[in-house]
Amino acid sequence: MQDFLTHAPIQPTDADVEDIAHRKAMDEKRVEEQRRFYEVARKRAAELDVYMEQYARLSIEWDFLLTLDRFRRDIVERNGLTMLFKEIKEKQTIQDLSIQYQKFAEWLRIEVAATIYHLFLAEDNSPELFAQAKKIHSMIPYTIIKNAIRIANPAAVMSSILDIFLAQPFGARSLMQRIFSLTLNDGIRSFQKSIDALNEKIGDPVFSDKIKKFTDASEPIKESVRREAFDDDIDLIVAILRTEEIKPPLNSEQIGKIFNAYVAWNSAVENVDEEMKQGAQLFSYLKQLLKLYTRQRDKAMMLSMIEEPVTLQLLRDLFTIFYEPLVRVYKSANVYNSVTDFAVFIDDMIQVRSPS
Q1: Is residue 161 one of the residues assigned to a domain?
Q2: Are residues 112 and 201 in the same domain?
Q3: Using a CB cutoff of 8 Å and minimum separation of 24, what contacts does 303-308 make?
Q4: E-only strand ranges, 171-220
Q5: Would you place residue 127 in the very low, low, confident or very high pLDDT band (cuts 50, 70, 90)?
Q6: Residue 2 maps to a domain
Q7: Mutual orientation of helices 205-216 and 274-306 as an angle, nearest 10°?
Q8: Which of 74, 89, 123 is the last residue of a domain?
Q9: Is the peptide bond before 355 cis (omega within 30 degrees of 0)?
Q10: Cα–Cα distance measured from residue 353 to residue 347, given in angstroms and rounded to the nearest whole number
Q11: Which end of the chain is more exposed for a tag (fewer CB within 10 A), N or C?
Q12: Residue 144 in 3-state DSSP?
């Protein structure tokens, strides 16, 4: 570790120094924002905990079996959602709700804030997720959705909304398909950049090609290669590269190279020989490449599945099933106004998150 940190030091350029200072400032700002967020969340959670403890003490007086866990289960079990919908139907504002539901709403507010913060600010891939959210937000026709909800009767609302998202005019892709395609294609392109970088480091297109063909191969071929790796007690990468079921076969020099890399990778911790280091690094690159190709293939298969007409019908059926319990609540609420509220909320979130 000491050699790794001190060997061959570099002299940063002016651009590097400026970039380091910028990253340091952003990290400090992110840490401060995270500290402030957790402080607010901690205070809200503490207030909620005080109520929870009081509820638990009262429960003990009524019944020793009533505890804090039961209160939480009451929300999601024992017709908890039915009771919640009934409460929402009868009360006009959150302040009018029963105390347990007011605290439940407060807990939800904290959870939503924490989720938004972690998705779009705190994680390493937050910039990519935020860019996707902006694109999807720009694609959703909020005005059309609002009018569909406002005009249609409660029983037909879900059908109208699904028509907006799932309709395929003149055989073109639906809005839902375009949204999924946008997200999945971004992921596929991101994986491809990493794959290209690894292929350049590996330096042997035959290795990369065999790994790619394995990820795209039929399940019987994959199972055969996995069984071979298990029976011979070798790494899956070695089994993939040496098998003749996936063309082209390796020559003797390539086989020797991959076996030497496998040995070096197994003994990389205690072996400091430069040649062995390079072999271990090559094997590490190959293992990373297999994971990236697999993940890219998964996204490609999901994209293909989204394009299937039967998938749209399945989504329609699922949405209809989940919508059924909400019809009664819908009848007594101006749900269409919530569409505008949600759109404005997303606009505000984007404005706050976007750099000034």
Answers
A1: no
A2: no
A3: 303/180, 303/181, 303/184, 303/185, 303/188, 306/176, 306/177, 306/180, 306/181, 306/184, 307/173, 307/177
A4: none
A5: confident
A6: no
A7: 30
A8: 123
A9: no
A10: 10
A11: C
A12: helix
User: Structure tokens of 174?
Assistant: 């639906």
Q: Are 197 and 319 in contact (CB under 8 A)?
A: no
- Region 31-39: what's the mean pLDDT? 75
Kindly tell me if the per-residue pLDDT of 71 is higher than 70.
no
Burial 142-166 (b: 16+ CB within 10 A, else e): eeebbebbeeeebeebbebbbeebb
- 232: in domain: yes
205-216 and 219-231 helices, crossing angle to 10°: 120
- Give CA–CA dist 12/23, Å, rounded: 14
**Residue 119 sits in the same domain as residue 189:** no
**Tokens encoding 230:** 């298990």
DSSP structural state of residue 64: T
pLDDT, mean over the chain: 78
Residue 245 lies in a domain: yes
* Residue 94 pLDDT greater than 60, yes or no: yes
CA distance 226 to 152: 55
Give the chain's length: 356
Residue pLDDT, tens place only, 237-271: 999 988 888 888 888 888 888 888 888 888 765 55
Question: Angle formed by the axes of helices 274-306 and 175-202, to 10°?
Answer: 160
Confidence of residue 67 (pLDDT cuts 50, 70, 90): very low
* Lowest-pLDDT choice from 24-38, 212-226, 337-351: 24-38
Give the pLDDT confidence of 272-294 residue by residue, as tens digits.
567 677 888 888 899 999 999 99
Is residue 207 within a helix (H) or strand (E), and if so which, with residue range? helix 205-216
pLDDT level of residue 51 (50, 70, 90 thresholds): low
- Domain with 251 in it: 185-306
Helix axes 154-166, 309-323, angle to 10 degrees: 150
- Count of domains forming the chain: 2
The residues, ordered by sequence, that sit 6+ positions from 30 with a Cβ below 8 Å of its Cβ are 121, 122
